[in-house]
Amino acid sequence: KTRIFGKDLQELLRKEGRGSCIPVVIERIINQIIERGLQAEGIFRVEGGATSVQELRKTLDRNPQHVLTSVDVYELGQIVKQFFRELPNPLIPFEMYNRLISIQREMTAVASASASASSMQGITSSPVDSNYSDLADFLEKIRLFLKDLPYSALI
Fold it and tell me: In this structure, are residues 106 and 24 in contact, taking their beta carbons and an 8 Å threshold?
């Protein structure tokens, strides 16, 4: 049985064997959101139908290649959120959490891009584990995806 939700990201990516840092099903969902949902407001805030989302999860767990063209974009947004929420190991390791929070506070207190950049360099120069480059690649892809979304699509 194929299982996507609640599965370790590295294990899922190894099983796919594509050399990508984003699971194929999440990549397909994001592509659908880009194609059909960029003008929708609050894609990741507005709840899709709970029953429909649960059914879609079950379907995607059985068949990650399930056709998504007729699925509501709000349900797709919920699927993405649930996928990341249920990862057994978070994208940002617990060991980095406190440092990232302090960088965020520093960025808020000091509007200096150079101070923020040097703080971030401290994290990137000492990766916590071998998943660092996957995390960096993944976050870059998410950044590129989000930069094209209108602000109203996110809130």
Answer: no
Question: Average pLDDT, stretch 107-135?
Answer: 57
Q: How far is CA 37 from CA 8, 71, 101, 150, in A?
A: 28, 11, 31, 10
Taking the C-alpha atoms of residue 148 and residue 129, their distance in angstroms, rounded to an integer, is 31
- 72 CA to centre of own chain: 19
> In sequence order, what are the residues at sequence separation of 6 or more whose Cβ sits closer than 8 angstroms to the Cβ of residue 28?
64, 68
Weakest mean pLDDT among 22-31, 95-104, 111-120: 111-120
Evaluate whether 71 touches 32 at the Cβ level (below 8 Å): yes
Query: How do the residues of the chain divide into helix, strand and coil, expressed in percent and rounded to 5?
Result: 60, 0, 40
CA 91 to each of CA 24, 43, 52, 75, 131: distance values in angstroms, whole numbers, following the listed order: 17, 21, 26, 22, 9
0.85 exceeded by pTM: no
